Amino acid sequence: MEKLGQYFEGVAWKYLTAVDADPGKSNQHEFGGLVKAGFRHFLGDPGEETYKFPCRFMLLSEDKDKSASVDGVVSWYDSRRGKSGRGPELRLYYVSNEVTDLISEGMFFLIAKTTSGELILVFCDKGSSEEAQLRWLFGLDSTTHAFSGKAIDENQIKASWSARWVLDELGIELFEDDSRYLDLMLTRFGGAFPKTREFSALALELSPEIQPVNLPDTALVSLMDREESLFRQLERHFVEEKLKSGFSDVEQFISYSLSIQNRRKSRVGYALENHLEFLFKENGVEHIRGAETENRSKPDFLFPGLPQYENHDFPDNGLTILGAKSTCKDRWRQVLSEAGRIKRKHLVTLEPGISGNQLDEMEANDLQLVVPSSIHETYKSEKREWLWNLSDFIEHVRDKQGKYLGE
Questions:
Q1: Spatial distance between the Cα atoms of 407 and 399, rounded to a whole number of angstroms
Q2: Which of the residues 11, 143, 161, 194 could staple to 189 if both were Cys, CB 3.0 to 4.6 A apart?
Q3: pLDDT one-digit tens code per residue, 217-270
Q4: What is the pLDDT of residues 17-45, one digit of tens each?
């Protein structure tokens, strides 16, 4: 379990007003109202000075192509300093950048002060999955067009996988001072990154406590957590070694950085499929992974198998499709076009707090979302009853298996 107090001191949040979003209406590039929200406690009292804070501006979007991040500096100062007879009015000044050029009235806006002294300014659409995830992570209550604020309880704990996921979106990597298995991995994998199946197999080997039949939801999250921890240990080792040897030029550095990001993105999806495959086998569920159906589409999982799918005498109701995506964003729609014989689609994800609008759209398209039980708490209470967990899905396909295969 991770404690938010390790990473954050406090947050403030609001919905942007027209003046906030359009500096032309106020001739200012600044945010006021933070003092009333109690945020001066985290930024200090500059008096006659101007405090400078390193800052990361972030625009989060359900469409990854529209997300943006820019590093900069913001200034905390008294806009009335030197004016006698008037009390201080503290404001946070920023310089226009790629992110602030894209903000608009009504957006959700959050400022977070990190324990390292940095500020993170995050913007996202009102009612979006990103807003829901931030609200869950920080435990935010109602929001208006005026700032609200809160200190982060140093003992506040969130579910490990979900917290890791949202923090990663904010560009904060959880540091785990755990290298217990580094020597084992270097020896077993020959000093190189292994294939994802080998990583998944090691995660399973080092997780003897899981109960794949009795507690498949807990087992899935535990295996993903274990593999993520192992991967980050090995990755950190290789990155540190590379930094010691250095780079020949900027292009080599950029190429290396991109390779790290691409490996992270591709690996987690394969890891999810690997661990699901293990759990289905342990639960006696007939399935095939990555089989090619019509139009050369390849569903992640097809139940009970390809022979039944290709046999048009086999009842359509006896077939099931499951897509597996560690994050949904807009990619969940890809599942809708797969396995045309099967009207109702299923999709398993590890993404916390998907917005109500997206869930409604999934339901309208006859897609059932499957989310491990421990992540359900990140969703709005009125949507949790509609969600399935992995146990629900396994029971569903086993019932079909008994009915249509006589097993």
A1: 9
A2: 194
A3: 999 999 999 999 899 899 989 999 888 888 888 888 888 788 887 887 789 999
A4: 988 887 555 446 889 999 999 999 999 99
- Sheet arrangement for strand 320-325: 288-289, 301-303, 320-325, 345-349, 367-370
Tokens of 150: 């809160």
Q: Token digits for 222?
A: 């535990």
Report whether 227 contacts 220 (CB < 8 A).
no
Domains of the chain listed by start with CATH number: 2-169 (2.40.330.10), 182-282 (3.40.91.80), 288-404 (3.40.91.80)
CA dist 345 → 212, 370, 375, 378, 385 (Å): 24, 11, 21, 23, 18
